[in-house]
Write a structure and sequence with these properties.
Layout: E1 2-6, H1 14-22, E2 31-35, H2 39-45, H3 47-54, H4 71-80, H5 85-91, H6 105-115, H7 119-122, H8 127-145
Length: 146
């Protein structure tokens, strides 16, 4: 089983947080990883695909996406600059809304990840994603050896 959670704050140490959640020894068939800071940092890490999807210049997405303090809000800010009206309407909250994301935020990002995002490319811009993929490969190799 594989689970991903968000770190949410740089003050948290990922390994200590995981240990506090698990409260003991982690089951060998359970892999819990943390996206630094939020899963959106991994989504934006495939920089060219994300820029193409959002219809923005790639230079607007930082080289190291793990360093973005508030990735969800940053992604919404990028979407505000999109040349695609339908994408802006999906990802950006309506004026006066209490939500920080648009009405179709999750489904729109799911479509991007499912159809355009490449984890191998993304791992070049996200150290936390690269570590997660490396760990997944180790776990999968160990399972195939059993």
């Amino acid at each position: 089983m594989f689970m991903v959670a968000d770190l949410d704050t740089p003050a948290q140490c990922p390994s200590q947080l995981i240990q506090s959640w698990l409260r003991g020894i982690q089951h060998p068939q359970f892999l819990l990883r943390l996206a630094v800071m939020e899963i959106e940092s991994w989504i934006m890490a495939d920089r060219q695909a994300c820029a193409d999807f959002l219809a923005i210049p790639v230079h607007r997405i930082p080289q190291e996406t793990d360093t973005i303090p508030h990735p969800k809000e940053f992604l919404v800010t990028l979407a505000r600059r999109s040349r695609k009206k339908s994408l802006r309407e999906a990802l950006v909250p309506a004026s006066g809304a209490t939500s920080v994301v648009g009405r179709a935020y999750n489904s729109c990002l799911w479509e991007f990840v499912h159809n355009h995002w490449n984890g191998s490319r993304a791992s070049q811009a996200s150290t936390s994603l690269r570590r997660t993929l490396d760990r997944l490969h180790v776990v999968m190799a160990a399972r195939s050896d059993s």
